[in-house]
Amino acid sequence: MSENEINRGRRRFLTATTAVVGAAGAGLAAIPFIQSWQPSARARVVGGPIKVNIAPLEPGQLLRETWRGQTVGILRRTEVMLQNLGEVENRLSDPDSMKDQQPAYIDNQSRALKPEYLVLVMICTHLGCIPELVSEVGPQPYDENWLGGFYCPCHKSKFDLAGRVYKGVPAPLNLKVPPYRYIDDRTVEIGVDPEQIS
After folding, report:
1. Burial letters for 99-136: b for 16+ Cβ neighbours within 10 Å, e otherwise?
2. Do residues 71 and 122 lie in contact, with contact meaning Cβ atoms separated by under 8 Å?
3. 39 band by pLDDT with thresholds 50, 70 and 90
4. Could you read off the pLDDT of 88-138 as tens digits, one per residue?
5. Is the CB of residue 101 less than 8 Å from the CB of residue 175?
6. Domain segments of the chain as ranges
7. What does the alpha-carbon distance between residue 102 and residue 95 come to, in Å, rounded to a whole number?
8. What three-state secondary structure class fits 63?
9. CATH architecture for residues 49-190
C-alpha cells in the first residue's frame, strides 16, 4: 500500500470522525435550545387548575386563592344572603348575566353550581381593582339600601352577592365566574369545567 493511499484512508477516517463528533455536538447543543421552548414547571403550575378545600369555610366567610395570577374568591353564602339576591335585581345592570361573564353551565340567579358557594374572579371589570366583601346589611356611605355585596374602593363600583354589577357605576360587567367543578363535597377545582375528567 502506497503512502498516498494510507493518507487518503486517514483523511477519510478523520473527516468521518469529525463529522460524527460535530453532528453529536450540534445535537447536544440543540437540546437546551429546544427545551427553552417548553413552559417551565412554574409556568405550568401557574396556568393549571387549582384545588381548594372549602370545608373550613363558615357561612358568610370569603376565601381568597390565586389562579392564573388572578384573585379568586369563594364565598359561602347564608340563607339570608341567597334570599337577598332577588331583592336587588331591579337595581342591577345585567341581572341575568347575559353579557358572557360566566360559563354556560352557570345560568341561575345565584351564579353558582351549588347556591351556597359562590366562586368569582375578584377583579373589578372597570379597571382591575380588587373589590371588598361588605356582607353587613344596612346603610353604607355608597348605598342607603345595602343588602350585602362587593364594593370596589378604587372607583366605587358595586356588585351584589352573586357578583352582578349595579346600574350607574363605572364597572360595565358582572364579576367573572371562572370555570370550576366540585371534586367532592369538600373540594372545588378552579380552572376545569364539570364535564372535564382529570
Report:
1. eebbbeebeeebbbbebbbbbbbbbbbbeeeebebbbe
2. yes
3. low
4. 999 998 888 888 667 888 878 899 999 999 999 999 998 888 999 998 889
5. yes
6. 1-38, 49-190
7. 13
8. strand
9. 3-layer Sandwich (2.102)
